[in-house]
């Protein structure tokens, strides 16, 4: 890829920050400085990014175009003030923290800080992420375009018009991969319960989830149509779906789960 992204400062190189950084490095970064107190997390990026343990160790001449906030939301009040010095220079802050509101970030970074709230997901690690983002008032078109380029480097991007919409996004696509992986786990367990060998059960569950995802990605059909294509009238799948789609079963449970996660995102606003 010939594109080059501008200088970035990544705060927190854990599971999600690391997944995004790998995509940005692949796309070509002028310079990346990573603040990560736990050296093992960032070790994979040694030689490709400058890894420092804290804000005080950021090179004095470094002027990032964007500062990516990828620490836990609960750590924001203590950690963010150390990065407020980048706001007056026009750096864009892109937060991927669940729940943390623009108002709470500006309380720590300065009221004029340019902030984008983004919610990616871990398939970003294989450039198949989905991110929804919200640009707070004051973010310029050029800053929004920069955020869009950063997020597009690791997958698909959608912009929302209202900040609160990021909270259900967090519940659905931010956490969504966990629900899909849980599906693989429970399919594997159910296969073993029906007498299949453990290694076959594992292979089947993984291949079925991955293959179905690939088919969904490649097909113009709705998920419901793809489901119906598997479900022969009076056949075996219909029996299983009758159980899964009972009034209190899957659809109702998923609605309850997404509501619980959305509520939790709102609790983390700060
Ligand atoms: N995991 C996911 O699927 C997604 C996560 N997110 C959001 O991304 C953020 C990070 O989540 P995730 O990657 O899972 O968490 P991780 O715990 O894996 O990553 C956070 C990293 O930040 C480090 N850290 C802690 N304090 C500081 C600091 N002051 N300066 C720099 N680094 C620091 C942590 O180090 P140490 O371990 O030593 O504390 C850790 O390595 C969260 O806000 C989460 O809501 C968003 C979308 C999806
Ligand atoms: O569970 C969390 O809080 C984060 C946000 C979305 C995915 N992981």
From TrEMBL:
NADP(+) binds at residues 11-16, 70-73. It catalyses: L-proline + NAD(+) = (S)-1-pyrroline-5-carboxylate + NADH + 2 H(+); L-proline + NADP(+) = (S)-1-pyrroline-5-carboxylate + NADPH + 2 H(+). GO terms for cellular component: cytoplasm. One of its GO terms (molecular function) is pyrroline-5-carboxylate reductase activity. SUPFAM superfamilies: 6-phosphogluconate dehydrogenase C-terminal domain-like, NAD(P)-binding Rossmann-fold domains. Pathway: Amino-acid biosynthesis; L-proline biosynthesis; L-proline from L-glutamate 5-semialdehyde: step 1/1. It is found in: Cytoplasm. Residues 163-268 form the Pyrroline-5-carboxylate reductase dimerisation domain. GO terms for biological process: L-proline biosynthetic process. Keywords: Amino-acid biosynthesis, Cytoplasm, NADP, Oxidoreductase, Proline biosynthesis. Residues 10-99 form the Pyrroline-5-carboxylate reductase catalytic N-terminal domain. Its EC number is 1.5.1.2. Belongs to the pyrroline-5-carboxylate reductase family. This is Pyrroline-5-carboxylate reductase. It comes from Neoroseomonas marina. The gene is proC.
